[in-house]
Amino acid sequence: MSEAQLIPLFAAGLAFVSVLLGGYGLIGYLSGANDTAKLKERVSGTTIKRSEALAAPLTSMVKNSLKFFGRMGSKIGPTEVDEIDKNRMRLIQAGLRTADSYKIFQGIKGCLAIGLSGGFLLFRFLFSPDISVAISAFSAVFLATIGVYGPEYWLTKKIARRKLTVSDELPDALDLLVVCVESGMGLDQAIDRVCHELRRSGPVISSEFKLLTLELRAGKSRSEALRSLAERVGMDDLNSLTSLLIQADAFGISVGRTLRVYSDAMRIKRSQRAEEKAAKMPVLLLLPLIAFILPALFVTILGPAVIMSMDMFSAMNH
């Protein structure tokens, strides 16, 4: 056999050996993870899932990455207390409430800025050295700007989506609060009950009510806990609701009547928001209609006439 005929056979054999070794390695890893899980169960006396043992290396890598981002964020982030509190509150409103979330977020911004600009400069010097220095500098600064402000844009959108979710879930929560309060429960018990009832249908407002309940159990006054709830969410409607509840508690006004009036107003506002979205649909559909549907329709209708005209003119020329 010639060398040209031996090359495919050699490549097939090499691929077979590679797949075989990869399979053996995967089997060894799975068995090792299973043995590790069994050993941990014997030492700790608890049951450890096999999936958790398999995901342990990935979890460890994620934790190490977050620690690195946190250390970097503590060095490059702002040092003013007001700026730190403002950024931390934005992360809380987005639902990112770990202890080092602010430092991690700042570290991610710095790594993205350095990584994007540095990667572009490395690509420029290795593969495209003919790019001018001015264009290279402008592109590096532009990519660094994207790395800094891109996470800020993502955080702003996440906060807006969370506020919209809370505004959609709040009327149902208020209806349940009205039912619980008018059935004889206190406001604290009603909030705890609504928190358990809305775990699946309204997870965001349920988590906020859960934090409110924990703060009340920890000894915080009701007014302070309600103000903390409004600050965590950052929504005007919820801020107005907490103000009404604080005033009702202070002046002895019926809480059930206050909640009923406010729930009706929130439900009307949710319906108006849905009607507004429905009214915007014809305008939003106009662009894809012009860009995609009308050209295909014109080709379908006028295509045969154009072809017949071309054939007729070519026959006349002949």
From TrEMBL:
It comes from the Bacteria. The chain crosses the membrane at residues 6-30, 107-127, 133-155, 283-307. It is a multi-pass membrane protein. It is found in: Cell membrane. Keywords: Cell membrane, Membrane, Transmembrane, Transmembrane helix. Residues 174-302 form the Type II secretion system protein GspF domain. This is Type II secretion system protein GspF domain-containing protein. The lineage of its organism: Bacteria, Pseudomonadati, Thermodesulfobacteriota, Desulfovibrionia, Desulfovibrionales.
